From TrEMBL:
It comes from Rhizobium freirei PRF 81. One of its GO terms (biological process) is tRNA queuosine(34) biosynthetic process. Its EC number is 2.4.99.17. It holds the Pfam family Queuosine_synth. This is S-adenosylmethionine:tRNA ribosyltransferase-isomerase. Transfers and isomerizes the ribose moiety from AdoMet to the 7-aminomethyl group of 7-deazaguanine (preQ1-tRNA) to give epoxyqueuosine (oQ-tRNA). GO terms for molecular function: S-adenosylmethionine:tRNA ribosyltransferase-isomerase activity. It comes from the Bacteria. Signal peptide: none annotated.
């Protein structure tokens, strides 16, 4: 499909720079493409229980954001040191990470990069790495001098929370982001971007869902920085997705299959949990235990196998995520939904408001 079909104009003031307080007071646009004239309705996230029923199951991504934005100095024999930035996006081994580097063109295989200087140092001082591989678009593979838990601790000490570029361009990261840019149920460290639909949930909202009889299940997909990369191709067939690591355990798969068998609905919180569940699903809709790297690219025409409803934030124009929601609820429906959201003051992107989508029949 043509990528420009997924374009729209967003006024700058619609980009949220902080989350709503409390989190579940954010607005919620309910989009039901099967309801005829009443496709769109305006609510708050705390109204979520009005659209679910006992026996439904919500699926959350429990990945935890790490401070994956690193600043350092590149060292090369015969050349002066140069300031570089690296955003880790996928772990390749206990001592290796794939990263997006800036300025990427000036980095060569074999370069040494010393991360951590000034106030940001780990217990051992700086964190050093060697550039082991170099790919396209500024992607590199870093082999660190530390490995495993020791490397994790050093990254936590040296790194910064990697705010999305549309927020980082407007203000610096601060201590508040360490809490704001994390779901209350995050537990599996490894993401460099938050599963942002989950940012709306609070203990009181969980209690309300429990009282209604809504099941709560967790899967893990470590969101990579590739989620922010624009689609530069003119046609979706020419776009290359970046892979992300995740897993669905056997117990969770069995419980979700039982929900489907008794007529309950699977409601994914965020496009990350949806992509993982669809990656783990057979053609007949059965969800299998699954682990590995998924690069599933969902565009209109995709037949959803397992997911019935999707809660998600408002996404960037020409993005793979806007393509995904357009596949789920219909392109015309989602274009109308985004127009309504812009005109009525919804807040967009990671810290913005949410939507609840019914899958188009």
């Amino acid at each position: 499909m043509r990528v420009d079909l997924f374009d729209f104009d967003l006024p700058d003031e619609r980009i949220a720079l902080r989350p709503a307080e409390p989190r579940d007071s954010a607005r919620l646009l309910v989009v039901d493409p099967n309801s005829g004239a009443n496709t769109l309705s305006d609510h708050q996230v705390r109204d979520l229980t009005s659209f679910l029923r006992p026996g439904d199951a919500m699926v959350f991504n429990d990945t935890k954001v790490i401070p994956a934005q690193l600043e350092g100095i590149r060292h090369r024999e015969g050349a002066p040191g140069q300031q570089v930035s690296a955003t880790l996006h996928m772990r390749a081994a206990p001592d290796r990470w794939k990263a997006f580097a800036k300025p990427g063109k000036r980095i060569k295989i074999g370069d040494r990069i010393q991360f951590g200087h000034g106030e940001n140092v780990c217990a051992l001082g700086t964190l050093d790495a060697t550039v082991e591989e170099k790919g396209e678009g500024g992607e590199i593979t870093l082999r660190f001098d530390l490995s495993g838990p020791a490397l994790d601790e050093a990254i936590a000490a040296v790194g910064h929370i990697p705010l999305p570029p549309y927020i980082a361009a407007k203000r610096p990261e601060d201590e508040r982001d360490r809490a704001d840019y994390q779901t209350i149920y995050a537990r599996e460290e490894g993401a460099v971007a938050a599963p942002t639909a989950g940012l709306h949930f609070t203990p009181s909202l969980f209690a309300a869902l429990d009282a209604l009889g809504i099941e709560r299940h967790f899967v893990t997909l470590h969101v990579g920085a590739g989620t922010f990369l624009p689609v530069k191709a003119d046609d979706t067939d020419d776009h290359k997705m970046h892979f992300e690591i995740g897993y669905v355990d056997a117990a969770t798969a069995a419980k979700l299959n039982a929900v489907k068998a008794r007529g309950g609905r699977i409601v994914c919180v965020g496009t990350t949990s949806l992509r993982l569940i669809e990656s783990a699903s057979a053609e007949d809709g059965t969800i299998k235990p699954w682990q590995g790297a998924t690069g599933i690219f969902i565009t209109p025409g995709y037949r959803f196998k397992a997911v019935d409803m999707l809660m998600t934030n408002f996404h960037l124009p020409r993005s793979t995520l806007f393509m995904l929601v357009s596949a789920f609820a219909g392109l015309d429906t989602m274009r109308a939904a985004y127009t309504h959201a812009i005109e009525t003051g919804y807040r967009f992107y990671s810290y913005g408001d949410g939507s609840l989508l019914y899958r188009k029949d």
